[in-house]
């Protein structure tokens, strides 16, 4: 059987972007609820608690990725992703900014940082993503990060919607999203170039597209869990956050 030729760069990039257009979690009804000002205080808190688990694992998955990279240039380029989230020893970083959001919505930052109350489905999906980046080929791992191509749009919509509809929203509370508006395009520029450069066979292009699809599933599954647990009453699973817990 003759092997298929790979797509040219422009066509392959279009294929990747089409995945986001069809599957990125900005299409999920939970975000319409949140950005439209219709989410209750407890639904916002549940989102902040569960999204924290995802945020907290991003530098861990990036460290796992870097531990397998033998090319110093790739490690240098990737290192900023850990610094963006962890920050310095005393200040800065996306994780600290997320905890400011937690405090703004009335949660104890220490409770949120502990990971207590995270839904089982959230934990399962996020841990699967960390394992994917740790274990799959490096090209697939990089491709899975390309959901960042679609992130600036959702961050901008979130900033606008939260500022318009919620009393807690101010520049301090939303600083995580403001910062990501600048960080994400930089990460995308490198990651997309790397994937386009190295996915030089049809098989590698298929694998990269599958990796990006997997990552959109990870994000979507987290919102499905939130919807099931906190939008549809009475379906909060055992061990997950109960309204009234962890308040400051």
Automatic annotation (TrEMBL):
Q: Which reactions is this enzyme annotated as catalysing?
A: 6-(2-amino-2-carboxyethyl)-7,8-dioxo-1,2,3,4,7,8-hexahydroquinoline-2,4-dicarboxylate + 3 O2 = pyrroloquinoline quinone + 2 H2O2 + 2 H2O + H(+)
Q: Which E.C. number(s) belong to this protein?
A: 1.3.3.11
Q: Where is the Thiaminase-2/PQQC domain?
A: 14-224
Enzyme class, top EC level, equals: oxidoreductase
What pathway does this protein act in? Cofactor biosynthesis; pyrroloquinoline quinone biosynthesis
Main role? Ring cyclization and eight-electron oxidation of 3a-(2-amino-2-carboxyethyl)-4,5-dioxo-4,5,6,7,8,9-hexahydroquinoline-7,9-dicarboxylic-acid to PQQ.
Please report which protein family the annotation says this sequence is part of.
Answer: Belongs to the PqqC family.
* Protein's UniProt name: Pyrroloquinoline-quinone synthase
């Amino acid at each position: 059987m003759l092997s298929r030729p790979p797509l040219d760069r422009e066509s392959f990039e279009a294929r990747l972007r089409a995945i986001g257009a069809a599957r990125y979690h900005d299409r999920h009804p939970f975000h319409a609820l949140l950005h439209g000002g219709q989410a209750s205080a407890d639904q916002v808190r549940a989102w902040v608690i569960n999204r924290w688990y995802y945020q907290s694992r991003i530098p861990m998955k990036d460290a796992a990725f870097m531990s397998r990279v033998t090319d110093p240039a790739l490690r240098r380029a990737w290192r900023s992703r850990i610094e963006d989230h962890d920050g310095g020893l005393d200040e800065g970083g996306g994780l600290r900014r997320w905890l400011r959001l937690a405090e703004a919505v009335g949660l104890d930052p220490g409770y949120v940082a502990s990971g207590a109350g995270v839904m089982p489905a959230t934990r399962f999906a996020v841990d699967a993503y960390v394992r994917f980046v740790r274990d799959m080929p490096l090209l697939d791992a990089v491709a899975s990060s390309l959901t960042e191509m679609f992130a600036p749009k959702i961050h901008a919509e979130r900033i606008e919607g939260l500022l318009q509809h919620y009393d807690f929203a101010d520049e301090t509370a939303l600083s995580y999203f403001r910062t990501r508006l600048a960080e994400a395009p930089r990460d995308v520029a490198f990651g997309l170039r790397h994937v386009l450069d190295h996915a030089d066979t049809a098989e590698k292009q298929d694998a990269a597209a599958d990796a990006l699809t997997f990552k959109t599933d990870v994000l979507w599954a987290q919102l499905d869990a939130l919807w099931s647990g906190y939008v549809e009453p009475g379906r909060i699973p055992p061990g997950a956050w109960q309204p009234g817990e962890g308040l400051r």
